[in-house]
Batch of 2 targets.
Target 1
Amino acid sequence: MYLATPRQLKKLGIMGMNARNVEFVSKYNPRHLYPLVDNKLKTKLLAQKSGIAVPELLGTIEFQHDVKLARNLIAPFDQFVIKPAKGSGGKGILVIAEREHDLYFKPSGDSLTHDQVERHISNILSGLYSLGGAQDVAMIEAMVQFDSAFDAYSYEGIPDIRVIIFEGYPVMAMLRLATHASDGKANLHQGAVGVGIDLANGQALQAVQFNRPVFKHPDTGQLFDKLRIPHWERILPLAAACYEMTGLGYLGVDIVLDKNLGPLIIELNARPGLAIQVANGTGLAPRLAAIKRFKGEAMNAVERAKYSQNLFGLKSSDNG
């Protein structure tokens, strides 16, 4: 297998973890702001206050002695999502797509009893899925209603869109698609497909799974060459607006498409991963450098999104 040398990677503009941490995360993300994105409950409440669209919060459970309250809390809903406020990498997220009395069904068709659901909530509270094993809060959210545009492109899971934002400007985006290998999770390290996206129009550029090129979804067989993300004109400004919302200069914004509500923010990350470069077949470094060089007048989120589309779209040079 061919391995690129550090010099070749630098020529391609590929940014490594050390450069990300030292030159961007440490420099542009004040540490006192990290809790705003490391805690999903704080992120959601902040987004609601800022008027940024997020999935509806149905309730929270904070203490072990309140776990029994879950029955009444979820009783009105046949579909919902339970997630840890401080979880990472998709760990601890339980999606319930259907229920019959005290049986709850995941999108895969696997069933859980109510006791098992309560046990999962208890595990969340004990910190089983949280960063550093800290005590946590269980969030119960409305389940996103899958946009039919992706029906043939994902397997037992909801696709999400990751956008990297630097100083308020979108610099790179990818679509993450769940597979059988990823157990229905949109996590590239677990085997999800990453699809590089043209910032200009939301069109798929190329796709990878386990860092290898793929041309069709491994489970559905759908080709990626016709894939184009709807509502693109709303997605980039929504992601860009998270800069003002958090004050973080370098962050990853994760967005899902609800068929009724459109784009919704599901998570923010102050230390976004670098696999997005592999999905796009190009490096972040030249794009970040182009934003650093830009000395134009202040813009709002819509204007910054349009600027990035013109600068980094397929027709444009990555070097600005």
Target 2
Amino acid sequence: MDAIPVTFTDIQVTALIELYARWLDAKDPHPILGDPWADRIVRSLDFDFSEFKKGFALSRYPVGERSRTFDRWVAEYLSENPDAIVLDLGCGLDSRVIRVDPAPGHLWYDVDLQGVIEIADRLYPERAEHCRIAASAVDPDWLARIPGDRPVVVVADGLLMFLAEDEVRRVFQQIIDHFPRGQFVFNAYAPLIKERGEKRPEPVFEKYGVQLKWTIENARGVEKLDDRLHYVDEHRMGEGGLLAHASLYYRLLVAVINVVPAWRNSGWILRYRF
């Protein structure tokens, strides 16, 4: 099969950055995530991933840790709720449904913009009870295609921070209105990260028009968006030994971040319920 040309702009480019990080992780002798699909997807795309090397070489560690955590949380929720639905918002070119491998009876919906979904459809095999939906997570119409009488676990991996706050609120409210109960698992950043990015913009973000928009002041800051949202827990970098084989430089960096309050509280991997 000929390589598929990729002409993403704006937020769609983050799907390629995340894929690049999973690819780097998969190549590591001691991967955190070990996504077996990352290499074959990268090799199937006509895109110069080398432009990510300077700014995102270390991204394999946080992306691997975050993805591993989300996979575990989703699997836990499905084991406790045999009829639960999964929504993977801003799924990108991720193979999460294959990694989690849900038992029969769990409907799984990957949601992303049309250009991303078209490529994912070409590169990943069809799977029972799995469907990809080409839509913006902010658009309310796509939810009408999904049963609303079952519990749901919603993954938003590397998505919400690129939406405006009113858009993030709309995403939460639409899903909470549609389902009887469920959980959200997602990552978020503090204003410090946004301010630093504005002062020293990442060249790749500048090139493709990617902007960090939504931030929170603390781990419970999401509750102000909707009073039906309730904090469950969070994962901090370096917990659970996932970085045991990371480079010495990165492990030292995480150690420094975790002892400086302003840095330690600048990003979160979160789980909320409603």
